[in-house]
Each structure stands twice: as C-alpha cells, then as structure tokens.
Design a protein that fits this description.
Blueprint lengths: L4 E2 L2 E2 L7 E6 L7 E4 L2 E5 L2 E5 L2 E12 L2 E16 L6 E6 L4
Antiparallel strand pairs: 1-2, 3-7, 4-7, 5-6, 7-8, 8-9
Length: 96
C-alpha cells in the first residue's frame, strides 16, 4: 500500500478497526536534519549529501494497542533564526 500526502500530511483514510492519530510536535513545522554520510555500495565509495525534511508522524492503534507508526518526509530548505535558534522554512519541495 502506497502512502499518499495531502498538504504534506500522510493520508489518514480509515481502515476497519484501525484508528490513526497525527502526532504533534512542540516545533511547527517539525524539521529534521540528516548529516552527510559516506558509505560503500557494491565496493564503491558513495557520499550522501546533508538533507533537511519537514516530518509528520502518524500513530496507528487497533483495539487500544499501538500497532504501527508511519511518517512522511518532505524535502525542505530551512535556516536557524538568530533570536531563538529555531528552524525557519525557506523552501518546500513541490509534490504531485
């Protein structure tokens, strides 16, 4: 099953018996950063560039028990504000 995004949020379409909850974060938008990485693939050294994403997290429950978490990541460009150090969105990738 492929997850769909609507306005950057995962599709919360109902599935019989499963309740989905969008998990909020104290920072809005919630920006995560992956540092640059160097790795070896098929014997060849590769480099993964640093990236920033706007993240949304969904918790799924069945009969009151957590059965899964899902997340959506949208590539963004963000910078830290000088006043409080929080991240401020500069660009958001356009998704179809």
């Amino acid at each position: 099953m492929q997850s769909k995004l609507l306005d950057g949020l995962p599709d919360l379409s109902p599935v019989i018996g499963i309740k989905s909850y969008l998990i909020t974060h104290s920072e809005d938008p919630y920006i995560i950063e992956f540092p640059a990485q160097v790795f070896v693939l098929n014997g060849k050294r590769q480099r993964l560039r640093r990236a920033q994403f706007k993240a949304t997290v969904v918790r799924m429950e069945l009969n009151g028990n957590v059965i899964a978490y899902s997340y959506g990541l949208i590539p963004v460009t963000a910078h830290k504000k000088k006043i409080n150090g929080s991240l401020h969105l500069k660009q958001v990738a356009f998704l179809r």
